[in-house]
Amino acid sequence: MRAKQVLTAEAAVIGGLVLAVLVKELPGIVREIRIWRMVGVRPRPGHA
Predict the structure, then answer these.
(1) What does pTM read for this prediction?
(2) For a tag site, which of 7, 8, 12, 48 has the least CB within 10 Å?
(3) How far apart are CA 33 and CA 41, in angstroms?
(4) In whole angstroms, what is the distance from residue 7 CA to residue 18 CA?
(5) Quick one: DSSP state of residue 42?
(6) What are the C-alpha distances in Å from 29 to residues 3, 10, 25, 34, 43?
């Protein structure tokens, strides 16, 4: 395999892993956002 093919394969594997973790954690992330909204946490402009 050439270097470009190896890099492409690695990028595909890493992308797949990131996507799998995101899909697995999505319900928890949504739950956290709902909790923050109930508590009243709002992003303020100018406070990045």
Answers:
(1) 0.56
(2) 48
(3) 9
(4) 16
(5) -
(6) 37, 27, 6, 9, 16
